[in-house]
Target: Cytochrome-c peroxidase
Amino acid sequence: MTHDPARPLRRNALRLTLAAAAAAATLLAMAPVQSQTQEPVQPIEAAVVTEPAKVELGKKLWFDPRLSRSGFISCNSCHNLSMGGSDNLKTSIGDKWQKGPINSPTVLNSSLNVAQFWDGRAKDLQEQAGGPIANPGEMAFSHDLAVDMLRSIPQYVTEFKQVFGHDRLSIEEVTAAIAAFEETLVTPNAPFDQWLKGDKTAINAQELRGYELFKGSGCVACHNGPNLGGTSFQKMGLVEPYKTDNPAEGRSAVTGNDAERFNFKVPTLRNVELTYPYFHDGAADTLAQAVDTMGRIQLGREFSAQENADVVAFLKTLTGDQPQMALPILPPSSDKTVRPQPFD
Amino acid sequence: MTHDPARPLRRNALRLTLAAAAAAATLLAMAPVQSQTQEPVQPIEAAVVTEPAKVELGKKLWFDPRLSRSGFISCNSCHNLSMGGSDNLKTSIGDKWQKGPINSPTVLNSSLNVAQFWDGRAKDLQEQAGGPIANPGEMAFSHDLAVDMLRSIPQYVTEFKQVFGHDRLSIEEVTAAIAAFEETLVTPNAPFDQWLKGDKTAINAQELRGYELFKGSGCVACHNGPNLGGTSFQKMGLVEPYKTDNPAEGRSAVTGNDAERFNFKVPTLRNVELTYPYFHDGAADTLAQAVDTMGRIQLGREFSAQENADVVAFLKTLTGDQPQMALPILPPSSDKTVRPQPFD
Model:
C-alpha cells in the first residue's frame, strides 16, 4: 500500500483515457533506454518465510513491553510498524522518559543493511536486537531478567521449545526470534520498484525527473542498492560541516579511528515519506529540508525549488507495501512472573 | 482464543476417550438443572459492525500516538489490545513518565459498563475517549491541538469526511470514531459462555465448583450481568476497611456525596486472567490474592486454599476470544503537521 490516495486513481486514469494514453507515451519516451540491471537501485522482493513459528514468536516478543524494565516499552515503541517502523521523533523516549541519543532508524528493510545501528556496531539483526533491551537509556532491562520473565510464562516456554527444539531459553533464542521476525519486514512493490520492473506508468514525469536528478547530482553515490542506502558509512558534512548539538560521533566510536569521526551508516531511503524526521539527529522535519541540507553539505549544490520538489516527489515513490499483520495476543504473565515497577 | 493451551487438548480428550466420556457425564450430572436465563451471568455476543469505515478510522486514532503531546502515547499504550486491553501495571505511565493515579481498566467489553472510569465520571465511551487526550497526567495534549494535528494530515481529513459526511473535524468526531471502534472490542465465546449456552463440557468440575462458590458466597451480588461487573458502584471495603496508599476517593469525587466515598465502579471480570494487577490501586498481583482480599473485605469470609483455587479456576473460564485485527498503518504527517517535542 502506498500512502498517496491519489496514486491508484491516477494510474487508472492513465490506462483508461486517451489523454492519459498520450501521457503514458510521453513517459515511455522519457524513460532512459536501459534495463533494470543498469540502474544503481534495485527493486526489493517480498519476504519468503521459511520458519513461520519462529517469525510468529519473534512478532510476540517484538510487541511485548515486558522485555523492558518498566513493562511499558517494546521494540515497537520506537520502531512502530504503524508508522514506517520508526517513532517519528527526533530522538526516542527511553526508560523513565530519558532522551535518546540518536534518531530511531526504521526497522523496515533493515535486513538489507550492511550492519545495524547508525554507527554499525552490530553486525546483524540478531546482535542488534539484544542492544535496546539491556541499554539503560532505552528498555533498561537485562538479558537475564528478560529471560527470567519469559521462562515464567508457560505459553512462551512452550513456543520456544516448539521453535528451537530444546529447553534452553536464552537471550540467543530471544534475539534469533526477533531477528527472524524483522527479516520479514520488507516493503516491496513501491511505485519506483514497479517502474524498475518495467511498468513505465508507475511513476509520473516529475517523479522521473526527480530520479534523474537524484542520479545525476550524486545522491545515488551513497543511496544506492536495493535499500537506497545501508551499504556504506559516509561522513555527515562532506563538503560543508554539519552543525548539530547531537554528540554522536558515529563510526569512530566503534573503530577508534578518528578519521571515521562523524561517519554514519547511510540510511535507507525506502519509505522515507514515513520515517521523518531525518538524519541521525532528527534535525530535518521534512523531506524538502532533508534534500536541501544533503545537497548543500554532501554535494555542495543548492537545489532550486523545482529541483527540490522533483527529488521529493521521487522519494515518495519509494513507499512500498507496509507489512500487514495481525496484532499479536501476548501470553499472560503467570503468578511467578516478576511484576514490573516502572516508578522505582 | 483462550490463553490456556491445554484447553483444546482437554476438550478433545473429553470427546474422544471413554474415560473422558465418563468425566463428561459427571460434569453433566453436576451442572445445575436450570436454563441460562436463570443464571445471574449472561453470555456476551460478538460485535455487529454497522459502520465499518467509522470503526476503521477509530482504530487508526486508537493506535495513533500523535494524539498525545509527546507523540509517544496512544490509547493503546495503556489499554493494550495485545494484553487484555490493559497495561498490566499498577497504575499507568503518563506524559513525561508521570505516575498515573489509578489502575488502567480494560477497554474490552467496556461498552457493557453503566458508565466509564472507576468513578463513573463519563457517561459513555465517547465522553471517556476525550479524557486521557487532554489529561495533563496522561496524554497531556489538548482537544484543539489534537484536532489541528488531524486536520494537517490529508488522509485523515479525507477519512473523516467519508465517515461523517461533512468537513467539521472536531473532537466530537474524533471521540465518536474512537468509541465506535471500542464498541467492537468485545470478547465472546469464553468457555464459561459456551457453558452458559448449553455446552456442559466447556468447563470442568473444578471450574464449575468455583462458579457455584462464586454465586453462593456472594461475589455475584456485584459481579453479575453479561460483564460480571460494570453495572454498579460499590464500596471498596464493605466488611473490613481496605488499606491503600492510593488517594482515589471514588464516586464521592464525582457526586460530592461523602456517603459515596470509596465507592468504585465494580470492574468486569471478563478476561480477568489477562488484566492483572487488580483493584483500583493495582495492589493485587494475582487472582489468588484478589479473591482472598475480596473474600475478606467485601464478604467477611476467608476462602480456604481449595476454595480460592476453585474460584480462580472459574475466573479463568471468562477469557473470551480476543479481538483479532490487522495492525493499522497510520497516515503520515504532512509538512504542515506540528512535530511533537516530547522533552520540552
Q: What stands out?
A: The two ends of chain B are 43 Å apart (CA to CA). Residues 6-46+189-318 of chain B form a domain with the Cytochrome Bc1 Complex; Chain D, domain 2 fold (CATH 1.10.760.10).
